[in-house]
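Take a protein:
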Amino acid sequence: MILRIDDTDVERNTQASLDSIFDGLKWLGLPWDEFYRQSDRTALYTQAAWTIFERGMAYRDFTPMTQIGEDKPGGGIGWLFNPGARELSREESDRRAAAGEPFVLRFLVPRDGEREIRFRDLVYGDQSKSCADIEDFALLRSNGMATYHLASCFDDADLRISHIVRGQDHLPNTFKHVLIFEGLGTKSPKFAHLPLLIAPDGAKLSKRRHGPVVSVTTYRDAGFLPQAYVNFLCLLGWNPKDDREKMLLQEIVDVFSFEGVNRPNAVVNFTEQDPIDPKALWLNSQHIYALSHEELTDRLAPVVAAAGIQVERAHLLRITPLIQERIKTLNDVLTVADFFFADELTPYDPAELIPKKGDAAMALKVLESARKALETAGFSHDGLDGALRAEAATLGVKAGQMFQPVRVAVCGRMVAPPLFETLEVLGRETCLKRIDQALEKLRSRQASQV
């Protein structure tokens, strides 16, 4: 893999943005074998530009203009070239350049006859444009810096890129790039333009306007698996032509073809409150469910540690199977499994201890009975199941009326992982302590209501 940083736009290039690219690719598991920065290759671009000039395919344009207007003076509306600039003799051009007069080096777009630039896009099909509609675009700015068009095409030729795959907003630029490849004396690579990613309101996604949405690190920090995010990105504008949605990278590589790329733009669904696309969240949950308990434990451990929670891996490995199908992101472990790590439960409403179709008296009776049973019961699934069901039968209550108060007492909530496995992982001492605290809550509640 070749990582190429297009950083010729000095004002927009920052170390922070570069670090974000590096961190994102490393997290996604997409390492690079070669690395290039366009800012390190400016001499090569300058040499290439003058090679095109010496072939008679470029010219100096001495027309005074602002730096902003060098690519398309006058805003670019209907502009093709500056009058008189193309016709300047080589001798006059050399003389003015030697005198230090600033100029822009422009490509000499052919204007004789009715020539059309043609290429076949692997997504959008055959494309053509008359040279009469292509402006004499800049190769070198007046400060000597190469434009994006020249630098990009030179790098593609120099690095022997076979396929140029990019957003369809670059489709109009491709006609210019075909001309540059001709000027460089090399064959054009194949082109494939992909649909754009757009916001729910139809606006093109951009770093300036939709920063968190387009940042890979947003998903990383939200607790996504890298393989799930790759899966999500690949399904934006492409499908494998079957019913599969959850796919690993190698599965995508094996079935990918440009025929599967959709032409309409792809919508990334998000809100101002939540930058995460719900489809991405669902895919992440599916990838989490597919991990082995050992793999998921290894993924959860850094999240737990970063939250300042100290837990042995062996203990976390016992918790993992109980929460695996209850979490959608790795970060969810901190809310779904918090009661496994806490010395004291987060405060909860004592009313939640009261079973359905029961009252506080029933809750007290159930918890007192459950506590007695748990003092001697075997702390295994079958031992706990048998002991609590036997107590329920003795009290003449339904099993659910026994289980709910116990679940709330030990977990601090009504919805929690499977009860008996949870009790087993928490252990006898913690369970008895929390039931005692629940009983105290109920007694205090009753006393306050007298």
The two ends are 74 Å apart (CA to CA).
